[in-house]
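Hi R.,

Here's the chain you asked about this morning:
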Amino acid sequence: MSPPSHPVRAAIALGSNLGDRVAALRGALGALDALDGVALERVSAFLETPALTLPGSPPQPGYLNAAATLRTTLPPRDLLGAMLAIERDAGRDRSVEPRWGPRVLDLDLLLYADRVIDEPGLVVPHPRLRERRFVLEPLAEIWPEARLPGASATVREMLEALDEPPGASG
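And the predicted structure, written out as tokens:
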């Protein structure tokens, strides 16, 4: 995918439930902002949530979650690669950790302009964005009018319609 000809708006979810969670999120935000072709726009408040309990997921401590919007000239795959490198630098090893397990840092690309991307290892909009209060709540704080491509509801309206109880995370 070729780089955009001008900066586009993207949204990222951040989460941490191991170690110094505040430092992990702040470090990730600093690393994102330091990337060539990326400028942080807005960052939500950090939201404390219990870990999401799914079949087969290990017991784990609560999460600190946030969302950020940024302007970028990086193509989506390059942005994702940079995000995964930031996770690795923070000590995360996706190759050995259990799915939905505890993590020092989790970065997810939620939205990239108005693009729909469905490639191996990269799906945008994030496939579970609509289902997760811990993602929608911080995103609605900083970009309430955002719409998923093809969706009629805004992020704020999706959050208001969500049946999931406040505080469920993962």
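The radius of gyration is 15 Å.

Let me know if you need anything else.
M.
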